[in-house]
From TrEMBL:
GO terms for molecular function: acetyltransferase activity; O-acyltransferase activity. This is Nodulation protein L. It comes from Alsobacter soli. Keywords: Acyltransferase, Nodulation, Repeat, Transferase. The lineage of its organism: Bacteria, Pseudomonadati, Pseudomonadota, Alphaproteobacteria, Hyphomicrobiales. Belongs to the transferase hexapeptide repeat family. Acetyltransferase implicated in the O-acetylation of Nod factors. It comes from the Bacteria.
Amino acid sequence: MTTEKQKMLAGQLYDASDAELQHDAARCQEWLARYNASLGASRDARAALLRERLGAVGEGAVVRPPFHCDYGFNIRLGSGVFLNFNCVILDVVEVLIGGGAQIGPGVQILAADHPRDPAERATGLEFGRPVRIGADVWIGGGAIILPGVTIGDSALVGAGAVVTRDVPPGARAVGNPARLLR
């Protein structure tokens, strides 16, 4: 029998009100309360807290509180990743951020998704699509990265951009919806 958590992790429709998922989300909220209270703590203390909850934390990765996520364990940060204040990651499936990526304040990385059909959406089921951000990417403040998007290595996403499609390596994407600059 497939659990709701297994369905979630596989990107299938799942019931987020499932007891196991609610327990995982509550543990994450408890961790977030501790992490977000650590602004005045040392970089090493915050790094130790990140390693408690996140799926992977590369050497020198920094996440400035406040920070928000669903579960934490689906987030993988490469070495030298920097997330500025007020980042939100909806990590119902894997969110991978490559080494050296710099994420501006208020960025939202949204792997959680919902059915497009109103009747199916009314069931309350949801699903996720992985988000992958390559190495040495820069994402400007307030950008929104939508479910299923891949941003290639060394790409740049302008402040406030809403990224609805993949961004090739080395490209620049700006605007709402984000468009590639030539």
